[in-house]
Amino acid sequence: MLGGLTMGRRQRSRAAIIAVLCLTLAAPTTAVATHKHHDDDRRHAFQEIAQELVSGIDRSRSVTSASEAKAKQSYLQKAYGYMRPKRTRIAVAPFEQDDIKIAKAVADDFNASLFAALIKKGGRYDLMAREALKALIDDMQQTGAWEAADGNPINALLKNAGNIDVLIRGKIRVSGKTAVLTYTAISMDGRVVAQTLPQHFPLSSEDAKISRPTVSLDSAVAAAARHLADRAPELEELLQGGVRFEDTGTQPPFGSYLQGRVAGAIREAFSSVVTSRTIKVGRLQAHRGLKSGGAVSGKDLLDRNLSGKASAHVLSGSYWQLSNSIELRLNLKGPEGSNAEWVGWISSQDTAGRRVRPMGNFGSLRDYDGMGPFAFQLTSDRGKNAAYSFGDRMKLLIRLDRTAWVYCFYRDAVGSTVQIFPNPHFWQNHKQPRFEGGVLHTMPDDPTFNFDFVVSPPTGQELVKCFAVSRDVTADLPPELRGNTLKPMPRDLGMRLSPTFRELPDAAVSEASFVVTVGKQ
């Protein structure tokens, strides 16, 4: 038994500018000086960020041995036609609104400042214009290539551009009226080559969403249901896919309550005494046609397609805790790509007595998900980052775009970590943890695993963490990570899984996570 899992044999700011203009009426000289001071501070901060990134990229090119660089390029060249140039080509990934608390325009301003600072660092690097990268991503989204890569920017760019060597990705955390910004630079083989120290930037009240027009929870539920129902007239079956806290993947009690309330209101919106029309409301569940070893596309494993039902729509979303309110972001997705969205705000006190925040957060363990050469999907029979109750059996669904060697770990609610794949049962019948690309792999699976995942106490959040590697690295891993025991590993090793795999020699790496919310019922 491991926590909630039993494994056993089968049985620059716009509002700040406005503030400066207002102060000018009283003290123009002081206001202009203050504005310039803020600009200078911001410019200096981004110069520091750019220097940290460039220094890390420089070091990575100098310390990588010729044989290791050749081995990694050989794999990337064979798989994607990638050729490493003499001048490193760098791109700055745009922020996605679903992953950040502040408005995307504010986040884009941060990236623009970084890009300007990088340009000033000299001409030994080639920078991909932000507009060009955005246009490329937009094109991939329209053609389905982005979706096929499961939103993995490195994999998508390798397949569709092949002219980038290092991707820089930012992360924003908001605390009151301050944005805490960090950047990470990752090479095309998945190696972290630079990571910046946190920089703090002041936000205006508007940008920090300090004040938002709120409505009651009841009014928000009714408004969301009407809006979503009006945009899905063909809806026949509503599947609940989970409402999660911010970008954590967790489903605390308030998220589950909100989902149930909105689902019920949508059902009422479609009820008709005259036509006797009703819609079914149920839980998202993978259809039985998804068999281990069968060919499957990346789209097949998306939540909106997982049920296999042409008339089913999936209700999901997230909620974000602001200073004085909670921002609700809900969407209703259909199998043919239709997507209805609604955003609203409620008082931070109007939560029907349900707990809003999760009891744990795996943020640092999920920082590099979707960053590497493989399109690596890790989901479950109940969809991405699902909720389970005591006694439920959980089945993981895995797909890679090409063959890789896979290693998976389970971290429970109290912080213990065990390796679930490969494991002693697996080694009895197999010599290497090799997964073919383009097919479905289920875990556990009858011919391969000989055990079940049964959810057990305590309640809380747990994590499945998997790594896909370009070769069999079992012998290069620490003994505790070779799959020879189901006993918990040392806690410090459990927290260092990502650097352990990403620092392996002669290997390209991608990683994926699956957050499990464990409840009583």
Describe the protein in words.
With 521 residues, this protein is an alpha+beta fold. It is built from 13 helices and 23 strands. The protein has helices at residues 14-24, 28-63, 66-80, 104-119, 130-143, 145-148, 153-160, 217-230, 253-270, 303-306, 424-427, 491-495, 497-502; strands at residues 5-9, 89-92, 126-127, 166-175, 178-187, 192-195, 199-202, 237-245, 280-283, 312-321, 325-333, 339-347, 376-380, 387-389, 393-394, 396-400, 404-411, 417-421, 434-435, 441-443, 451-455, 460-469, 509-519. Strands 2, 3, 4, 5, 6 and 7 form a 6-stranded mixed sheet that branches. Strands 14, 17, 18, 19, 22 and 23 form a 6-stranded mixed sheet that branches. The protein has a 5-stranded mixed sheet with strand order 9-8-10-11-12, with helices on one face. A hairpin with a 5-residue loop joins strand 11 (325-333) and strand 12 (339-347). Residues 10-34 have low confidence and may be disordered.
List keywords for this structure.
521 residues, alpha+beta, 6-stranded mixed β-sheet, 30% helix, globular
SS-based structural class? alpha+beta
Number of helices: 13
Number of strands: 23
Global geometry = globular
Largest sheet: 6 strands, mixed
Report the mean per-residue pLDDT as an integer: 86
Name the helicity range: 25-40%
Radius of gyration: 24 Å
Kindly, what is the distance between the CA atoms of the first and last residues, rounded to a whole number of angstroms? 19 Å
Per DSSP, what share of the residues sits in E-state strands of 2 or more residues? 25-35%
Quaternary structure classification: single chain
